[in-house]
Amino acid sequence: MKKLFFLFFLAAFTATAQSKPAGKLDTSKPVLTLEASCGTCNFEMKGKGCFLAVKYEGKAYAVEGTGLDDHGDAHEEKGFCNAVRKAKVQGSLQGAKFVVTYFELLKP
């Protein structure tokens, strides 16, 4: 019974740890490949705690539309708090935020 519970737990963790795209890709709009990471840990942005950010045209912006933990554990070796990753992104700059309608983290 313990082995069955362990296997169930492991399968559930593995399924949730995999990054899935946020939103739906719109083929009529351009797809950008941007750097994505924790704004506080890697992009030196001010803010309360950790949050997802992207670099667009050389400047870092907080992301709205998907979150830091929606794409795996941020504190893993290659998680957003420890690494700058590439992502396929659709969205627009709205004020001080980059509002995404599609966000797909690329394999490291």
From TrEMBL:
This protein's record includes keyword Signal: yes
Secretion signal span: 1-17
UniProt keywords, alphabetically: Signal
Protein source organism: Aquirufa novilacunae
InterPro entries documented for this protein: DUF6370
Pfam families: DUF6370
Protein name, as recorded: DUF6370 family protein
